[in-house]
Amino acid sequence: MSTMDETPQTTPQIKMLPLHMDFKQFTICKPAPFSCDEEAILERERCDYTHRITYQMARSGQTGRRVRVYADGIYDLFHQGHARQLMQAKNIFPNVYLIVGVCNDELTHRMKGRTVMNGFERYEGVRHCRYVDEIVQNAPWTLSDEFIADNKIDFVAHDDIPYGHDGLDDIYGPLKARGMFVATERTEGVSTSDIVARIVKDYDLYVRRNLARGYSAKELNVSFLSEKKFRLQNKMDELKSRGKRELTKVKGDIITKWEEKSREFIDTFLLLFGRERLNHLWNESKGKLIQALSPPGSPSGSVNGDDLDADANDSSDEYLELPTEYSGGSSSSLNGKKQHSTSSLARRSYQQTRSGAASSSSPDNYDNDDDDHAAAFDTEFVERRSN
Q1: Which one, of 97, 88, 100, lies nearest residue 35 by Cα?
Q2: What are the tens digits of pLDDT across the range 307-326?
Q3: Model confidence over 262-274: pLDDT tens digits?
Q4: pTM as predicted
């Protein structure tokens, strides 16, 4: 029996990172370093600043190194206008290394005025913008040649509006003359001043909101009376909102109950006023309307226009005495009455006469003569009808 060599099967080993390792070094996105950080210092040392880059070289992309562009500002309440300005500076040339200088609080308050955010907040706002490669803290108001050389700046990016200071019409004028200035465009309709103006315009609203969130009147620099006024307004708004919610809830309950009862209402309505019921009501109403609007029928007329029922005996005797020639074998009588009416009246008068005679006589006096008279009368009546 031959034996086969069994080759050991190896499983791939997964390299585990130590638990104490800092995961920040594996992060792709990270904030821009300050100019004093090691990363920024190494980048600055690698730059051969003796190899000067002109505007034409930078535009063509034939520079041999990254173009170092500097943009400065206050960047208070960092907004989309600031971000768009930095984006333009980053993309103004191919292969740009963007350096952003941010002035500190002391210089800014002295030169421009009070800021909403302090220096640390403004630094952090800018260094987390994705277009920024490096942050310069405590940036100067005007750029000296020494500052430009220390930071190895090739071009300065800013909007083209002249900024005067210390007798200069434009602090960027010397850089424009040396060909080291590139212009960016401002974003219309948004600025830090506009945002502050909105806050001032709606001052009461923002104070009330912050009081509701737990800020004290002292922190908001609000007087005692103003605080009470704002808190009362907040309470009134709360009551209004609660009332609207309750009203909406009641409306919803009413609608829900109506939807639940609607089928029952519809079924009851159809039962009372359905097609069959409406047809029955219409037929009844139509008959009553016709009976109310139509006059009653005229009574049957006699020879002289009198009722035949009144004095029936006289009338019957009168009709019996009519000669045969008035009938003439036609179906009409003297006053337009049909002959069968005359015959019936005569027969009825004869029967009444017979009944009266029978009641007045006793059974002993009843003889065959009466039967002969009745037979003779019937024969005469039949002959008249046949004529």
Answers
A1: 100
A2: 444 444 444 444 444 444 44
A3: 777 777 777 776 6
A4: 0.54
Distances, alpha carbon 284 to alpha carbons 209, 213, 351, in Å: 72, 74, 44
Mapped to the 3 state alphabet, what secondary structure does the chain carry?
CCCCCCCCCCCCCCCCCCCCCCHHHHCCCCCCCECCCHHHHHHHHHCCCCCCCCHHHHHHCCCCCCEEEEEEECCCCCCHHHHHHHHHHHCCCCCEEEEEEECCHHHHHHHCCCCCCCHHHHHHHHHCCCCCCEEECCCCCCCCHHHHHHCCCCEEEEECCCCCECCECCCCHHHHHCCCEEEECCCCCCCHHHHHHHHHHCHHHHHHHHHHCCCCCCCCCCCHHHHHHHHHHHHHHHHHHHHHHHHHHHHHHHHHHHHHHHHHHHHHHHHHHCHHHHHHHHHHHHHHHHHHHCCCCCCCCCCCCCCCCCCHHHHHHHHHCCCHHHCCCCCECCCCCEHHHHHHHHHHHHHHHHHHHHHHCCCCCCCHHHHHHHHHHHHHHHHHHHC
Sheet holding 181-184, edge to edge: 134-136, 96-102, 67-73, 155-159, 181-184
**CB neighbourhood size of 90 (10 A):** 20
Give strand pairing partners of 158.
183
| Closest to 222 measured CA to CA, from 234, 208, 233, 236 | 208
What is the tens place of the pLDDT at every residue in 48-98?
A: 999 899 999 999 988 989 999 999 999 999 999 999 999 999 999 999 999
What is the C-alpha to C-alpha distance for residues 157 and 132, in angstroms, rounded to an integer? Answer: 13
The pair of three-digit structure tokens given for residue 288, joined into one six-digit string = 């009553």
Q: Which two tokens stand for residue 204?
A: 């009461």
Task: Tell me the two tokens of residue 206.
Answer: 């923002």
**What does residue 165 show for φ and ψ, rounded to 5 degrees?**
-170, 135
Strand-pairing partners, residue 296, are none
CB atoms within 10 A of CB 137: 15
First to last CA, the chain: 150
Tokens encoding 153: 């700046």
By the 8 A CB rule, do 339 and 333 touch?
yes
